[in-house]
């Protein structure tokens, strides 16, 4: 569909046709389940509101980064209030994550910098959340910034594993680029393992997707659930248990991801 990229006040139908093409929404890995369920229905209105401001697509991405990091930073504070702020922030972050691409598609302004900043935003946010949960479990406060304990160390460990796990995905792109191979289509077939036993395990794990515990939206909801347990018990047992459980889950998730990459067609 042809359109005028300089038109800052398109109708919702015009904007949807250009900014939310079906082939983009149907991507296998890149689209969060919340996107199709409800965020895309809201982000198009946010995008419509952003267009007259003349903010650039990268400007929207910077907003996404700030919202995600600040939302994660709220987790250690205010009892149950901090995790609630984090949950709201992660919802806003995914909305802005949708809107930056929608603004780019409408204005026909695409750049490697936009993709780079988007990756940085997700890396920072999804590493910051387990660190913040660890700080909360150790009752960290601004008045005693150096009093860090075992739970903070555990949160830092989980953050490192989360970053390594995310790198496993991006390193596929690096490996293919360095060997002159084209980008892969974002479809289920490319992620499927060629080893039948591993493929069956991956299908079973899909029914209990614990690996999503390290995605920003789900991680913030787990932090809130733990905070509710804390409030009921009058201590930090919910958050402390969550930190401990996150360690083996993160390690299994990363190991499974690495095996999945190495046994799929992604590196062929």
Automatic annotation (TrEMBL):
Protein name: CDP-alcohol phosphatidyltransferase family protein
UniProt keyword terms in alphabetical order: Membrane, Transmembrane, Transmembrane helix
Record field: transmembrane: 60-86, 148-168, 210-229, 241-262
Keyword Transmembrane appears in the UniProt entry: yes
InterPro entries per record: CDP-OH_PTrfase_TM_dom (IPR043130)
Gene3D superfamilies membership: 1.20.120.1760
Keyword Ribonucleoprotein: no
